Amino acid sequence: MDSRFSSDASYYPLISHILEIEGFACLPARDCAKALELLPQRPFTAVLLDCSDSSCKPDAIDRLCQASKERSIPLAAVLGAISLSRLMGPRHMI
To answer: In whole angstroms, what is the distance from residue 15 CA to residue 22 CA?
Structure first.
């Protein structure tokens, strides 16, 4: 497992194992830019975005959201409390 895929070294193997049991293939990308690069190369069922580290900048996330909408690919973002405050700012936190 290359730690560039997630700040949590056990995250990708766990999620990919669960998805592969359900019949899905997983293709990791080290950041939003790489995910954007991969989207037009093959058909995808969904995009699962780990926003728990600093590799996901808000503008890159916006571009990835737009690209997934254009291709009608669902996008799910995994946000921890720390990344949520980084993306939204402390004034939005309860």
So the answer is: 11
Token reading at 35? 């995910």
Judge whether 4 and 30 are in contact, CB under 8 Å: yes
C-alpha–C-alpha distance, residues 39 and 25, integer Å: 14
Asked if residue 24 has pLDDT above 50, the reply is yes
Please report which confidence band the pLDDT of residue 51 belongs to, taking 50, 70 and 90 as the band edges.
confident
CA distance 51 to 6: 9
With bands split at pLDDT 50, 70 and 90, how would you rate the model's confidence at 54?
low
Amino acid at 6: S
3-state secondary structure of 50: strand
CA distances (Å), 84 to each of 13, 14, 58, in order?
A: 23, 22, 11
pLDDT band at 22 (very low <50, low <70, confident <90, very high): very high
Q: How many CB atoms lie within 10 A of CB 73?
A: 14
